[in-house]
Fold this protein.
Amino acid sequence: MERKALVIGATGLIGRNLVFELLKSAQYSKVTVFARRDLVIKHEKLNQILLDFDHISEYKNEMIADDIFCCLGSTKSKTPDPISYRKIDYDYPLLVAKIAKDQGASQYVLVSSMGANKESSIFYSRLKGEIEDAIGGLNYASYSIVRPSLLLGARNESRPLETISQYLMRALNPLFVGPLRLYKAIEGNVVAKALVVLAKKNLPGRYTYLNNQLFNLVKELPSAEA
């Protein structure tokens, strides 16, 4: 049965790739995207809504979907104010999760981060852990959390330090084998493909997938989609 998807955080590295994967998938008949900027994509299945996330509750009638994908997230350099940072990484994802569930959504797929822990002394890691648990408390029929390592791929915005890290990790990545795959840098499009695989599984309950597991998930795709 064809499903409907809602994506928030679609202009980022993972989100942008995820939208392409969802549009390609025969499983989805409609892909709704909430974004601040135009994705500059035209597709018969795409329903793009440009909005101010501070007014996201006004769009509850657009949150009618089976599967919710959250790729929202910021960085300290981009959002130095902790209150604004919390809005992006916690308030918005949770609000969408609540409204969408009330509208009938049954599956939520959250992009978190390696090291997420609500008990962490690091603000970023603690916040990721807090949002994981807050959405878990809503009792979605299927709830998947993914925790990727350093992301590889071209971003729309400039992140000089991350760009340097990407160059280093691309050179070192072949050394990350066995248990070290947990820390291996991962392409944004690989994470996006893994998200679609998870959504297709639609497993009941709550699951957390670490970086090394994301590589394995993509191997389950048919060769034409991998």
About this structure: The two ends are 22 Å apart (CA to CA). The chain has a mean pLDDT of 88. The beta strands are 3-8, 28-35, 46-50, 67-70, 107-111, 142-147, 151-152, 186-187, 205-210.
